[in-house]
Design a protein that fits this description.
The chain is of the alpha/beta class and 499 residues long. It has helices at 6-11, 43-51, 59-70, 75-84, 90-93, 106-109, 111-127, 145-156, 175-187, 269-281, 296-302, 324-331, 342-354, 404-411, 423-429, 432-442, 448-458, 464-467; strands at residues 36-37, 73-74, 134-139, 165-171, 194-198, 211-217, 226-231, 234-242, 259-263, 337-340, 361-370, 379-382, 385-387, 397-399, 402-403, 415-422, 468-475. A hairpin with a 2-residue loop joins strand 7 and strand 8. Helix 10 (269-281) crosses helix 12 and helix 13 packs across helix 14 (404-411).
């Protein structure tokens, strides 16, 4: 998820993790706006913009001028500008991690987090034959804290139980963050391990002799989304426009809204696609299942690049093939909104492909979300607070809940997606309490309270422990049970499957 800094740069390449602020799924934020209809951009407006051109110093100016010249922006384009603009973007210009940033991540809170994830990878490595070579692939490594904790834990285990890391692959575009990650790798004694940085997951080469460890911690939530609303004319895309009172030069210093959300006055390429597939989905074939591999034709439609006009993917190609994602559009009543991230679909496909090598592999996706689509989860984070995503572009982190069923569907013909489990369930099952007790026995008296408080914060069911979800990913295996063997600690629960 392109890239930028930390998790962001690394996400698309790399948007990064958030937060100690938790967003109740049932609550609509107070800044939610009434959707208006976007006016058509006139040639006069375009001419006015062409005649007054100054070098913008704030991203808001760039966005306003872009909208006035070309018309309202899809939310996906707005997010990309806000997070990834090369000189004014959030992840390219700000120090976003830690107490002085806008969010704090689990690995930064306690070393126990990374240690327990490492133990899970060890169990999968051993169960799949204990390959003599192991590679680590992380999407959005941020400052490298989680990566360093995992490597340190591997190296602390007895030789027969220690995965031998032979290469490291990091999806990260920011040169500054790459240097920070390099320092972390050296600090844990892995400076001699072959390390490669890539701008996207698709660039990571296949491996025929290494077990693959994939880490995607708070990566998917910052990938660009499109927002659609169901109307009596079909699906219409929600766009970002300039506010009505900001179309004239700003002369007042009084804060006021500069941007607003509007409905596209007509169909966009994206809304046209989803309107048509919703019609196809209204007559599903009888043999569809959330666990069935997605037909290639349906996959290509769901991965349709909705920022550009359609090229080869035609709605007719999905006739006769139904996926759970497509069927959502036929079930939602008028007035409903839904958030879709085609970029997430493509990245998930890339993650699945990493685990198809002959030596096997295992992955973890850790993020906030659920096994369903969301319609109103898009929000901003600034100074550890939830804020309107349209305010202070370039100074605000943008995020949306992750639809784990959507990701699992994207990978269904490549891997098995287990779970999800809450962070509290996963970490507790992997032994958080015994590990905490071990740390407390060795801790200095003045640090005991700090260590215990940090560990409890990870599993607080009213906070991080309940907000974040873990999805485990393992290779498809042929067997009598169709590859549904139990995967600790997820059991036999698969993403998208009704219990």
């Amino acid at each position: 998820m392109l890239g930028s800094v930390g998790r962001a740069a690394t996400r698309w390449t790399a948007f990064s993790s958030k937060t100690t602020i938790f967003y109740p799924k049932q609550v609509t934020p107070s800044w939610s706006r009434t959707i208006e209809t976007a006016p058509k951009t006139s040639k006069n407006t375009q001419n006015e913009q062409a005649t007054r051109r100054a070098v913008p110093t704030e991203l808001l100016t760039v966005i306003q001028e872009t909208i006035k010249t070309h018309g309202p922006l899809p939310v996906s384009r707005y997010m990309t500008l806000c997070l990834q603009h090369p000189t004014l973007g959030y992840y390219t210009t700000k120090k976003v991690f830690g107490s002085k940033g806008d969010f704090v991540t689990s690995p930064e809170i306690s070393q126990i987090f990374g240690e327990l994830l490492a133990i899970w990878y060890v169990t999968q490595w051993a169960a799949q034959g204990a390959s003599k070579k192991v590679r680590i692939v992380e999407l959005g490594p941020g400052r490298g804290t989680l990566l360093a904790d995992i490597i340190r834990t591997f190296r602390a285990l007895p030789p027969h139980s220690s995965p031998p890391v032979t290469s490291i692959h990091l999806i990260e575009s920011s040169l500054a963050m790459r240097e920070e990650q390099k320092r972390r790798i050296q600090q844990v004694g892995a400076g001699n391990v072959e390390t490669n940085w890539w701008s996207s997951v698709d660039e990571v080469p296949a491996s025929n002799d290494e077990f693959t460890v994939v880490i995607a911690h708070e990566f998917f939530d910052a990938l660009p989304i499109h927002i659609f609303e169901n109307t009596d004319r079909g699906w219409r895309e929600v766009l970002v426009d300039v506010a009505a009172d900001s179309k004239s030069p700003i002369v007042s210093s009084t804060p006021r809204e500069q941007l607003r959300l509007v409905l596209s006055p007509g169909a966009t390429p994206a809304s046209t696609m989803y309107t048509r597939v919703s019609e196809l989905a209204s007559s599903p074939p009888p043999s569809s299942s959330p666990l069935s591999p997605v037909p290639k034709s349906a996959s290509s439609s769901l991965a349709f690049d909705t920022t550009l006009p359609p090229t080869s993917a035609s709605p007719s190609t999905v006739a006769g093939s139904l996926s759970p994602t497509l069927s959502r559009f036929s079930r939602l009543p008028a007035g409903s909104r839904t958030e879709i991230s085609p970029v997430s679909w493509e990245v998930a496909r890339g993650v699945g492909n990493l685990l198809t090598g002959p030596m096997g592999g295992a992955g973890l996706i850790v993020d906030y979300g659920d096994e369903k689509a969301f319609g109103r989860s898009w929000r901003g984070f600034r100074k550890h607070q939830i804020v309107d995503p349209l305010t202070e572009p370039g100074h605000t982190d943008l995020t949306a809940n992750v639809d784990f069923a959507y990701l699992a569907e994207a990978m269904a013909d490549l891997v098995i997606s287990h779970g999800p489990l809450t962070q509290a369930e996963f970490l507790t099952s992997l032994g958080l309490q015994p590990r905490l007790e071990g740390l407390l026995r060795k801790a200095k008296d003045d640090r005991e309270e700090e260590i215990e408080s940090a560990a409890k914060r990870l599993v607080d069911k009213l906070g991080m422990g309940g907000q974040y979800r873990f999805v485990g990913i393992t290779p498809l295996r042929k067997g009598a049970d169709g590859g549904r063997e139990e995967c600790f600690p997820f059991g036999k629960k698969l993403v998208g499957e009704l219990e």
